[in-house]
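hey so i finally got around to running both of the ones u sent me last week. sorry it took forever, my laptop kept dying halfway thru and i had to restart like 3 times lol. anyway pasting them below in the order u listed, first the sequence line then the structure token line for each. didnt double check formatting much so if smth looks off just lmk and ill redo it

first one:
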Amino acid sequence: MPLIIERNDITKMHCDAVVNAANKSLRGGGGVDGAIHRAAGPRLYEACAKIGGCPTGQAKVTEGFDMPCRYIIHTVGPIWLGGAYQEAELLASCYRESLRLAAELACESVAFPLISSGAFGYPKEEALHIAVSEISAFLMQHDMTVYIVVYDREGFRISKKLMNDVTEYIDEHYVDEHPNERNSLFLAYDNALPLGSALTEKAKPAMAGRSAPARKESLDDLLNCLDESFSEMLLRKIDEKGMTDAQCYKKANIDRKLFSKIRGNKLYKPSKPTVLAFAIALELSLDETNELLLKAGFALSHSNKFDVIVEYFIRNGRYDVFEINEVLFSFDQLMLG
């Protein structure tokens, strides 16, 4: 189901359908359009000639021919004329119509370029916002993997203010001088450290004043008193928030099959980005997020730029997983979901 931002050559994407940012004639052109026509071969030109063109905001489909995809969905984005000529609605329609065709064709995966953001001059930040908005709305109702494919980072823009705010937060909180020291967040959870965890010199004084337990507990005693698992806590939080499973995993940008594995196995060990994706979907506080992370054996660390970025959004009450992923992508970090 997830929306994935990927830096790649769209003509090399192995998925069910690739979307072509075409012109009205469908006869090929520059940029993405020309690259797709070259990659698909001369049969694509012949197929497009038979279609006879496509209006702005609409979409048509052909075979993939020599491309590594089953279908090519051709959509015509608007030329940017300043924003007063229904450009936003026409661009949104490109995504809606392309996704509608992909669903009708029973596609499980589809790759989009950032439509109209090249030669047609649509401002990249606004084009990205429309793309993410339309795709995420579609994914709330459908199970499909959708890629936004950018060729290089110069083709990808997020708000300068957001970028500056996150950069400032990273500068204030990111610590890389002592990557081997335990993060302060771990000190709050000394009792829950994994077996075999090494204490640094800085952490040892925190343990020094503790009295010995009244009696020695056997390993069986300890194993019979295991705390709530990650899966159990996640399902409890979903119920407490009044969400359905589907609402949660879709909002988290998580694939339905992965969620089924988590639900079916109370001892499931997720990745850190998966845990944080659920924390964002559930709109957990920073303390609740740390608790959920701890259930999976993780914690937020100020020596990890990925962690600092996610912490920035949680502290500021911004729980849009797609917005967070846009920023993570811009900072060359793993994305959530």
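and the second one:
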Amino acid sequence: MPHAFRKIEDSLFAMPGFFDGHSKGFRRADLITRADGSVHMGFFIAELQPGGDFDACVHSYEKGIFVSEGEIELNRDGKTIRLARGDYALVPIGTPYAIRNRGKERARFVEKCAPQPKLGPDEWQDSFFIRQLAWANDSEIETVKSPLGRMLGHFDKSQLPPPAKGDKHRSGQTKKMLMDQMFGAEHFDLFMIEFSEGGQSTMHDHNFEEAYLVIDGEATYEAEGKKYVLTPGTIAWSGVGAPHAFYCDRGTACCWLEVMSPQPPVQNLGRRYSAWEDIRKSLEI
């Protein structure tokens, strides 16, 4: 029942071996992989310098992209889409795609992949490069606001509903879904979540994995008897069955990008320990 926590530092970024000879100005920080105990996800932050790109490729896993800095252009199966900060897009399994940065600033974007990519040099090749895709003329480039745009979106914090009052087990939480089955994803849910100051989610576990990339604010993350301070530029992860909790006890709200993989069940998606203790006390002989 593993968990993980780390600060995202520049030393974590490197050019992935798969892209050797097929990219320029490209680096990636592999944040949650099999090395952390995960079996369902790859969670990365990719970086493209101005003028950087990588060649058209195909994966046997789906990829969710969320732009956190700068601007990129995504060529998804021959359609060019411009993505700026807060924009997101899904690359379904088996879909040819390429990415480039024609801006003047570096770009960084989350890559959430599932099923878990095979990163080892001796593993089965789950990705491959193809012939180059044709890029659209500037006048034909789509954005997340394009009328017929599919599997595209934009997030800003104004989209978060008011926090729920909740109860003694969970309170102060608000959530905006970004990618799920209705959006087109099959192997993960991706959403933005915020807990208001004083909010909490008491100890619980799931039959799926979760990762939390902190956007702003601070909170305490407790997992398997250990406590960590979530701050912008940190990421945490809870494996299947790993007990974990969140407490906004540091004088501020906390907002993070969260992913669940595989997609959770419709009902009973977790076991809230304190709630089950109440049930046990009321029913036990």
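quick thing i noticed on the 2nd:
The chain is about 5% helix and 50% strand.
anyway thats it, ttyl
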